[in-house]
Amino acid sequence: MLIILAFIILFHLAAAILCFVATIHNAWWVVTPAGRDVIFTDLWYSCNATCVPVENSHTTDAAYLQAVQATMILASILCCVSFFVFILQLFKIQQGERFLFTAVIQLLASLCVMIAVSIYTAQKNTFHMPSLQDGSYGSSYILAWISFPMTLISGLMYLVLRKRK
């Protein structure tokens, strides 16, 4: 049972780390213009030699970008909260009960990641300046997609998991 518990904790921590890295790292969109430096764009900044805020990110024109920012931050927070709730429930709930509250929070984190990445995928051309349209998805975008099934599986594991001795 201790091995299963260690695996669940490590799996949850890996999902949380992926969620944080995807939110923070500046490689959601990568553009390699001919003869110039590679330009990395994340949810807040576009960086090559210097970093500048994403154009119009503070206006209503970028409401989609603001939704992606908010849901990725919320997913990261919910993933951490569900881990702390799991640790608390590990010591507080009685034997034989399920970790339902932890599972619900983790499944909400999974839903937030899915919403954020889906919005980014559908609206990627409205986020970037015309000079940045000819790029490709970066490593943070891929990590966000990987963190979605990891948080989903983690939430489902908590749903099935019962406290044993």
UniProtKB/TrEMBL annotation:
The record's principal subcellular location, in a coarse class, is: membrane
Regarding the membrane, this protein is recorded as: Multi-pass membrane protein
Q: Which InterPro entries match?
A: PMP-22/EMP/MP20-like (IPR050579), PMP22/EMP/MP20/Claudin (IPR004031), PMP22_EMP_MP20 (IPR004032)
Which Gene3D superfamilies does this one have?
1.20.140.150
Which cellular component terms (GO) are annotated to the entry? apical plasma membrane; Golgi membrane; membrane raft; nucleus; perinuclear region of cytoplasm
The record's subcellular locations are: Apical cell membrane; Cytoplasm, Perinuclear region; Golgi apparatus membrane; Membrane raft
Q: Which UniProt keywords apply?
A: Cell membrane, Cytoplasm, Golgi apparatus, Membrane, Nucleus, Signal, Transmembrane, Transmembrane helix
In the record, which residues are listed under signal peptide?
1-16
Q: Which GO terms describe its biological process?
A: regulation of glomerular filtration
Q: Where are the transmembrane segments?
A: 63-87, 99-122, 142-161
The UniProt entry's sequence similarity note says: Belongs to the PMP-22/EMP/MP20 family.
The UniProt entry, under PANTHER family, shows: EPITHELIAL MEMBRANE PROTEIN 2 (PTHR10671:SF32), EPITHELIAL MEMBRANE PROTEIN-RELATED (PTHR10671)
Q: Specify the protein name.
A: Epithelial membrane protein 2
The gene that this protein is the product of is EMP2
